[in-house]
Amino acid sequence: MGNTEATGIPEDKWLAVVSNDGSCDGQWYYGVTTTGIFCRPSCKSKPPNRSHVRIFQTPRDALSERFRPCKRCKPIQPQLPDEEWEAQARAYIEAHYREPLTLSHLADALHLSPYHLQRTFKRLTGLTPAAYIQQFRIREAMKLLAATPLPVTDIAGQVGYANAAHFTTRFQNVTGLTPTQYRGANHKP
What we know:
This protein is α+β, with helices and mostly antiparallel strands.
């Protein structure tokens, strides 16, 4: 069985798994026999049944036992510092701002818990992910209003708002002008 402990998980490691203890990351990994997935101790996935847990010293040990890496905590990739997660979140938002973006969707795409994403993003940017999405959408709308003759309803849809009235309200809250007023003051022929 290589570097695994197959006859039960020690209490200290079990406590690390159920408390998502990041201080143990890189020291050992755990696999769940019923799913065939292995994780870092800090993984935010649902706590497994203790009797189904196996401990591995390295990812290679888990892979050799035919466990596959968790898609959430990515145990075979280096962990990113918070600043890199935040940069990835901003890049994802900027690439997908036209789509419906919820905190859960964003967290899934970045393999983070919604709580960690919200807390880390706000700490580093001063904005929640939702506020950043709104700010980015309004900035893109301002560019379109100034540079194109597209109707306001089309611009609303292009920047991710399904409802033009909601877009107009948000736009006015941010800029102090309605989209039509903004266009009149900033249109570039």
